[in-house]
TrEMBL record:
It comes from Paracoccidioides brasiliensis. Residues 73-162 are annotated as: Disordered. Residues 150-162 have a biased composition (Polar residues). Residues 87-112, 120-129 have a biased composition (Basic and acidic residues). This is Uncharacterized protein.
Amino acid sequence: MPPPPPRRSSSRKGSMADMPTELLDQLKTLEELFTVDQAKLKKIVDHFIKELEKVERMLHLSRSHEDRVRLELEAEQQKGGVHWKAQKLDKSESTDRSADDGNQDREIERGSETSIPEQAADKVREHQAQPKPIGAAAQKGESSPPLLKQPNQDTGQKTGVR
């Protein structure tokens, strides 16, 4: 049997023919894994559309005067996260949360389209300004002192870092 013909050298530097067969096989396997057929793509798109509709229903903010939405921030102290909570209210319902559970400090007051984002930003800043327990103080349930001193009430300037 005659020997196989010698491989032609590729005219392009770094072509696929220059790669080892193992690497070519791995590339082919990866291509098969990441190739999405029409049916799988339709499932992905349908799932994405359902999730979008769910979010739209949850965060739908009506601009009419009859419908009102109460927005509030819920802070998870254990995880350190902040989450939005939107609740659509009927005409008869009150936006006053103090009658419900006494957590009026977490409520974002009802306001105009431009004031609600400002109020939300204020609530986030308040949440971030609360001292978090660190080290041994966390085990004892104590809170640690803030790292930066608060602005000086007389001059409005920061007094420095501890």
